[in-house]
């Protein structure tokens, strides 16, 4: 069946089935736009984390690194975790805070920064889960409605044949196909991106633990 035949089935479908197809097409386009955007965002986050870790462990003075980041309008990712932790450390260090309080507050500040970064990475991601879980059922609704109309049309003829009912059923099945077309990429992308965000979370948390150990040693070295 060629592309013209598929187009004929879509244009010849009932208004309800056409509405279902339009909804599924919109959901598919929105999910694909989000898929490309999230792929770019997560790729940039991973590369930025790798670059910052290399810079952090290169032996650069932490105070200089903090001042460089403070000049920026916005810091994100692992840089934001470092920035929040060092800012809290510097504030308490100047106040001669006890080591226990210093470690607790720095850890809390970095935890808040990690949570904020994960929220940014998770933003709009539930849309993919929604499209993946609901699109097949929306398509099934269009299919059921189209088949109902096809069989209702048989009540107006004296002799029912396959040639009479087949076009209506074919129109209805297009809705199911569109539902699956919208759902499958969304589910695959959601699972993949969720896994990548989990790996970034573990990476941020591991960095925060290592950074906290460095700050604790730095606090103990204070004369």
UniProtKB/TrEMBL annotation:
<keyword id="KW-0997">Cell inner membrane</keyword>
<dbReference type="InterPro" id="IPR050790">
    <property type="entry name" value="ExbB/TolQ_transport"/>
</dbReference>
<comment type="similarity">
    <text>Belongs to the ExbB/TolQ family.</text>
</comment>
<feature type="domain" description="MotA/TolQ/ExbB proton channel">
    <location>
        <begin position="92"/>
        <end position="205"/>
    </location>
</feature>
<comment type="subunit">
    <text>The Tol-Pal system is composed of five core proteins: the inner membrane proteins TolA, TolQ and TolR, the periplasmic protein TolB and the outer membrane protein Pal. They form a network linking the inner and outer membranes and the peptidoglycan layer.</text>
</comment>
<protein>
    <recommendedName>
        <fullName>Tol-Pal system protein TolQ</fullName>
    </recommendedName>
</protein>
<keyword id="KW-0132">Cell division</keyword>
<dbReference type="Pfam" id="PF01618">
    <property type="entry name" value="MotA_ExbB"/>
</dbReference>
<comment type="function">
    <text>Part of the Tol-Pal system, which plays a role in outer membrane invagination during cell division and is important for maintaining outer membrane integrity.</text>
</comment>
<dbReference type="GO" id="GO:0051301">
    <property type="term" value="P:cell division"/>
</dbReference>
<keyword id="KW-0472">Membrane</keyword>
<dbReference type="InterPro" id="IPR014163">
    <property type="entry name" value="Tol-Pal_TolQ"/>
</dbReference>
<feature type="transmembrane region" description="Helical">
    <location>
        <begin position="125"/>
        <end position="148"/>
    </location>
</feature>
<keyword id="KW-0812">Transmembrane</keyword>
<feature type="coiled-coil region">
    <location>
        <begin position="190"/>
        <end position="217"/>
    </location>
</feature>
<feature type="transmembrane region" description="Helical">
    <location>
        <begin position="16"/>
        <end position="36"/>
    </location>
</feature>
<dbReference type="GO" id="GO:0005886">
    <property type="term" value="C:plasma membrane"/>
</dbReference>
<dbReference type="InterPro" id="IPR002898">
    <property type="entry name" value="MotA_ExbB_proton_chnl"/>
</dbReference>
<keyword id="KW-1003">Cell membrane</keyword>
<feature type="transmembrane region" description="Helical">
    <location>
        <begin position="168"/>
        <end position="190"/>
    </location>
</feature>
<dbReference type="GO" id="GO:0017038">
    <property type="term" value="P:protein import"/>
</dbReference>
<keyword id="KW-1133">Transmembrane helix</keyword>
<dbReference type="GO" id="GO:0043213">
    <property type="term" value="P:bacteriocin transport"/>
</dbReference>
<keyword id="KW-0175">Coiled coil</keyword>
<keyword id="KW-0131">Cell cycle</keyword>
């Amino acid at each position: 069946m060629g592309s013209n035949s598929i187009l004929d089935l879509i244009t010849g479908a009932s208004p309800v089935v056409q509405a279902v197809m339009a909804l599924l097409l919109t959901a598919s386009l929105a999910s694909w736009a989000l898929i490309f955007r999230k792929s770019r965002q997560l790729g940039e986050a991973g590369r930025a984390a790798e670059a910052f870790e290399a810079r952090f462990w290169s032996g650069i003075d932490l105070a200089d690194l903090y001042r460089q980041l403070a000049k920026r309008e916005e810091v994100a990712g692992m840089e934001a975790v470092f920035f929040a932790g060092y800012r809290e450390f510097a504030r308490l260090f100047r106040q001669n805070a006890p080591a226990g309080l210093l470690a607790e507050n720095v850890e809390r500040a970095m935890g808040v920064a990690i949570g904020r970064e994960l929220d940014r990475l998770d933003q709009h991601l539930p849309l993919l889960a929604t499209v993946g879980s609901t699109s097949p059922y929306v398509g099934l609704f269009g299919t059921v409605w189209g088949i109902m109309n096809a069989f209702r049309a048989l009540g107006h003829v004296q002799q029912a044949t396959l040639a009479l009912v087949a076009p209506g059923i074919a129109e209805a099945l297009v809705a199911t196909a569109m539902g699956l077309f919208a759902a499958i990429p969304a589910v695959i992308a959601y699972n993949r991106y969720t896994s990548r965000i989990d790996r970034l979370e573990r990476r941020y948390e591991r960095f925060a633990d290592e950074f906290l150990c460095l700050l604790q040693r730095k606090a103990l070295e204070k004369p």
